């Protein structure tokens, strides 16, 4: 870190400043959640599989470093997240290992494509470099990529998670869940992407397509995201989601 961080934060004003703070908060929470997950897996596997446990511990260190860096970024905006409180107050839900493998593999790979796409875009268009944290996304995203590769190896070592009809259904389900969630969330925050010179929907479709191509190398089945009908349905879901949000914000009783 250098004085450039604080100077960039002080220059940011209006809606972009608010949406950027939200970006830092969401990203920090997501990275810290990854830290908690990997740390817990490392702890539980220490006796039964010490090699895998050590890898999870190293991955948790990566996630903690990312979360700390993002939280330090929030301090440039005179804010900070109490990560210790998140550790104590967070509710934990048990998932079967295969569900963790599918979901976390996708999370890491889609994170890689998001980070590297933003990095390459800003490198080619430096006028949109509103905050220096993006300059570190090249190295940062390689952590995400390596984590995804590790989960790919875990899946290959458990062929029952890849080789039957149930695996195909679960693979498609998790792909759709991750892609749709990202698209709907990002379409609610277009100000952030427009603030760094990106078209939100074009950015998301690029990330989805590249993630899907990568995922097809390991998952037994993936959705056809390059079919134009897929994007049309995503956009229809965005319209429906906006109506649902509007109903929630209204005092009127909607007719069903």
Which whole number gives the mean pLDDT?
A: 90
- Span between termini: 53 Å
- Round the Cα radius of gyration to an integer and report it: 19 Å
Task: Supply the number of helical segments.
Answer: 10
Helix-strand pattern, N to C? HHHHHHHHHH
Keywords: Chlorophyll biosynthesis, Iron, Metal-binding, NADP, Oxidoreductase, Photosynthesis
Catalytic activity: Mg-protoporphyrin IX 13-monomethyl ester + 3 NADPH + 3 O2 + 2 H(+) = 3,8-divinyl protochlorophyllide a + 3 NADP(+) + 5 H2O
Domain Rubrerythrin diiron-binding: 22-155
Cofactor: Fe cation
What can you see in these coordinates?
This protein has 256 residues and is mainly alpha-helical. It has 2 domains: 1-94; 99-130 and 160-245, no CATH class. The chain has 10 helices and no strands. The protein has helices at residues 3-11, 14-44, 50-75, 83-89, 97-124, 137-156, 165-187, 190-195, 200-215, 228-249. α5 packs across α7 and α7 runs antiparallel to α9 (200-215). The radius of gyration is 19 Å and the shape is globular. The model has no long low-confidence stretch (mean pLDDT 90).
Question: What would you say about this model in short?
Answer:
The protein has helices spanning 3-11, 14-44, 50-75, 83-89, 97-124, 137-156, 165-187, 190-195, 200-215, 228-249. By secondary structure, the protein is mainly α.
């Amino acid at each position: 870190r250098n004085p450039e961080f604080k100077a960039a934060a002080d220059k940011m004003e209006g809606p972009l400043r608010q949406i950027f703070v939200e970006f830092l908060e969401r990203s920090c929470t997501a990275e810290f959640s990854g830290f908690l997950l990997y740390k817990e897996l490392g702890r539980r596997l220490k006796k039964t599989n010490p090699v895998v446990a050590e890898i999870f511990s190293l991955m948790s260190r990566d996630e903690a470093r990312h979360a700390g860096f993002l939280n330090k970024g929030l301090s440039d905006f005179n804010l900070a997240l109490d990560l210790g409180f998140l550790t104590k107050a967070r509710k934990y839900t048990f998932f079967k290992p295969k569900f963790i493998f599918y979901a976390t593999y996708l999370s890491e790979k889609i994170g890689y494509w998001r980070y590297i796409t933003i990095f390459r875009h800003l490198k080619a268009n430096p006028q949109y470099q509103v905050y220096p944290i993006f300059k570190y996304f090249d190295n940062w995203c390689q952590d995400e990529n390596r984590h995804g590769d590790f989960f790919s190896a875990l899946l290959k070592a458990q062929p029952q998670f890849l080789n039957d009809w149930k695996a195909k259904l679960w693979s498609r389900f998790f792909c759709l869940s991750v892609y749709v969630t990202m698209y709907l969330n990002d379409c609610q925050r277009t100000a952030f992407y427009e603030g760094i010179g990106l078209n939100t929907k074009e950015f998301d479709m690029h990330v989805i397509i590249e993630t899907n191509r990568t995922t097809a190398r390991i998952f037994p089945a993936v959705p056809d995201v390059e079919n134009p009908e897929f994007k049309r349905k995503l956009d229809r879901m965005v319209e429906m989601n906006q109506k649902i949000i509007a109903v929630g914000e209204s005092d009127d009783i909607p007719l069903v």
